[in-house]
Amino acid sequence: MSGIYIHIPFCRKACNYCDFYFSTNLTNKAILITNICNEINLRHSYLINTKLSSIYFGGGTPSLLSFEELNLLINTLTIYFSWDKNAEITLEVNPDDITIENLKNWQKVGINRLSIGLQSFNDEELAWMNRSHTAIQSVNCVKMAQNLGFSNISVDLIYGSKFQTAKIWEETLKTAIELNTQHISAYNLTIEAKTELGTKFNKGIEPAINDDLSSKQFLHLIAELQNANFIQYEISNFGKENYFAVHNSNYWKGKHYLGLGPSAHSFNGKTRQWTVKNNSLYNKAIENKLPFFEVEELTLNQKYNEYILTRLRTIWGCDSKEIKNLFGETIFDYFLNQVKNKKQFLEEKNGIYILNLKGKLNADGIASDLFL
Asked: What are 356-361's contacts with CB under 8 Å, separation 24+?
């Protein structure tokens, strides 16, 4: 089965660390939603398998959409795609958008999984990030969603900022675990060039990330969530049994998906496509039937490198038999020779290689060493 990703490129405010594509100008939101519906009509044939296992509304801030806008998008998808009641339909939401009315509306349109951007339980840190919510809202919004019947909730956390001592991170994890959600995603803060944080770092206003502290926080994260019955199925993602994110897992497993909206990416096993990162250009192109995305035909080497990059980060690991079947004898031999040099970072069972604890601290570097 396939997946659909819909990028909603709007936010009320710009977080200081975020380099995803978005706009804080909501003037043309309704027009853009109409054009995403038009894009569904134009590009639905990109996916051969029209039975969906997941639909993911990401951004940006998809929780800014009205009931009518969300409903329009879902109804348009039903024209070209089908999914059963077990399909995962995720909405990324900000805590300040979680109200009883919104929760009920999300349920009406079929949203059955919430991904809530809490990021922190520290008001000073939230203000520094330029988030729109408070620490109290971070806790209360999850409880409100649970009380309204949402039983598949993921929360996002960020570690590595200048605010997070070992004690504060410990308290953060304790609070997150006590919320009793089914999934936690935790990301190490990074300083990206085109963000407010990146600009301040370059001017010497903000300090560099303390990599040693971040590594300790990462290891503490793994230990605490494991004790709380979460499974680390991907470097940054922890789910309770039967609650791994279907949509993101399919990315890592190389399943096919169609990305809709400005800046969205698509993959169908043969090509990768990416849409223009500009709301105005996107709208004009769709309305005037002009090209609005680029296409790359993937080589065998590129497919192998993407397999290594994504699968090595997961509990499913890199399967040498699968590599042989997918990429041939020569690449299979290359892989086996390369992993011999990475034994201190890897565990192997029945020809499947996964990262050990030391390897998880160096995942990207190990993957690049295995690339063709």
From this structure: 357/219, 357/222, 360/218, 360/222, 360/235, 361/215, 361/218, 361/219
